[in-house]
Design brief:
alpha/beta; Alkaline Phosphatase, subunit A; Diphtheria Toxin Repressor, domain 2; 2 domains; ten-stranded mixed beta sheet; two-stranded antiparallel sheet; 36% helix; binds zinc ion
Length: 423
């Protein structure tokens, strides 16, 4: 066996079910930041988070050599789903663009149910690398088509798909939603329907044209949590299941250098992990593994030589910085200090409000809002892209101890294949 160096260290029985969780872009600065963001300032100690409780090991994320050590989400997800390092942009294919067997495909061959729950479009790089094969992550329509066209022993690869992306599934040239419906899938486009799914039928749930709204703009139950609960309940069966859960938009917040949005996405993931931990620890047949594909934005907690990070300024925003910017861009009057104070939840001076003079488009207002938030919280960023720092792995349940070490991302896949083969 190629991965004979990997030993199952856990004495407990092999998991029947695997829940793989990915925080896209969630490097260690994000889990650390989340701890301080959640800290109760009325107690002397800094409270631990779900990430602290589940922390198991570290993971290097580099793609194939010669790529400069910094991965994109496609190469990282392919590594995590197949056990092979590949080039940036690759979806479930090797460096020669040849398809690689994915964890989900193997699970399906073995008669298990499979599913995906993401806050991006369901054909985005991470979920695609578990369920599809394509030379480029940018071929969104082809990837969407493959979800319907490609089968394993005559079966669809996924029993459950929840996330965004209706614009890729309902197109002028092809309506995949009606094709799925004709193939006996139940289709939902409203999150409130998640609690009344028919367990006998596979599910396609698309709740947005592309990605789901920011957590900061959502007043209901957090999206990832709601979808993950429904996914687990729907997939439970005697043969077992493999479920991918991705907090996709931590990465998008990182690319935008938007610390407020990032921490709110982290909160949705933390609540999801808390629920999943409890679910897994109340049974004896399930493995929960969570990691990140890479870190995004070069986030630092503290910046510019100043020894402080003050996440309390992120606590009273009335909406996401992006939505606040959109609203302000659509008014006819000048942006006032009072308006900004009301929207951001901390006091903005007239001098600071003057920085918005001449900014009338959404993008430039959004940039200025983020600068204000960064300066209050003293948050730093070094990039609008990814960085090559190692990420963490978190685990609980049957076989969790196997991840208790430093590993590279392909080792995680190899270990999960071992779990599948052991059944
Ligand atoms: Zn990214």
């Amino acid at each position: 066996m190629v991965w004979a160096d990997l030993i199952l260290t856990a004495k407990d029985k092999l998991a029947k079910n695997i829940i793989m969780v990915i925080g896209d872009g969630m490097g260690p600065a994000y889990t650390t930041g989340y701890r301080y963001y959640m800290d109760n300032i009325n107690t002397p100690q800094v409270e631990t988070t779900i990430f602290d409780k589940l922390l198991t090991g570290m993971v290097s994320t580099y793609p194939v050599n010669s790529q400069g050590y910094v991965t994109d989400s496609a190469a990282a997800a392919t590594a995590l789903s197949t056990g092979y390092k590949t080039y940036n942009g690759a979806i479930g294919v090797d460096v020669n663009k040849k398809p690689l067997l994915t964890l989900m495909e193997r699970a399906k061959q073995l008669g298990k149910k499979t599913g995906l729950v993401v806050t991006s479009q369901i054909n985005h790089a991470t979920p695609a690398a578990y369920f599809s094969h394509n030379e480029s992550r940018k071929n969104y329509n082809e990837i969407a088509d493959s979800y319907f066209d490609d089968k394993i022993n005559g079966h669809f690869k996924a029993n459950l798909m929840l996330g965004g992306g209706s614009k890729y599934f309902i197109r002028p040239d092809r309506n995949l939603v009606s094709e799925f419906k004709q193939a006996d899938f139940q289709y939902i486009d409203d999150l409130s329907k998640l609690t009344s799914l028919n367990k006998q039928q596979p599910v396609l749930g698309l709740f947005a044209e592309v990605g789901l709204p920011w957590t900061l703009d959502n007043k209901n139950e957090n999206h990832l949590l709601a979808m993950a609960k429904a996914g687990v309940r729907h997939l439970e069966n005697n043969e077992g299941y493999v479920l991918l859960v991705e907090a996709s938009q931590i990465d998008w917040a990182g690319h935008s250098n938007d610390i407020a949005a990032a921490m709110a996405e982290m909160q949705d993931l933390a609540e999801t992990l808390t629920w999943l931990k409890n679910y897994v620890e109340n049974r004896d047949d399930t493995l929960l593994v969570a990691t990140a594909d890479h870190s995004t934005g070069g986030l630092t907690l503290g910046a510019n030589g100043d020894y402080r990070w003050q996440p309390e300024f992120l606590k009273n925003l009335t909406a996401s910085p992006k939505s606040i910017a959109t609203k302000l861009a659509h008014q006819n009057t000048a942006i006032s200090a009072q308006q900004l104070t009301d929207a951001l939840g901390f006091i903005i001076t007239d001098q600071e409000a003057n920085l918005f003079i001449g900014r009338s488009d959404e993008k430039s207002i959004y940039e200025q809002i983020k600068l204000l938030i960064d300066s209050r919280t003293n948050t730093g960023w070094t990039s609008g892209g990814h960085t090559g720092i190692d990420v963490q792995v978190f685990a609980t349940g049957n076989g969790a101890k196997a991840f208790n070490r430093h590993q590279t991302n392909t080792d995680i896949a190899k270990q999960l294949f071992l779990v599948l083969e052991g059944n």
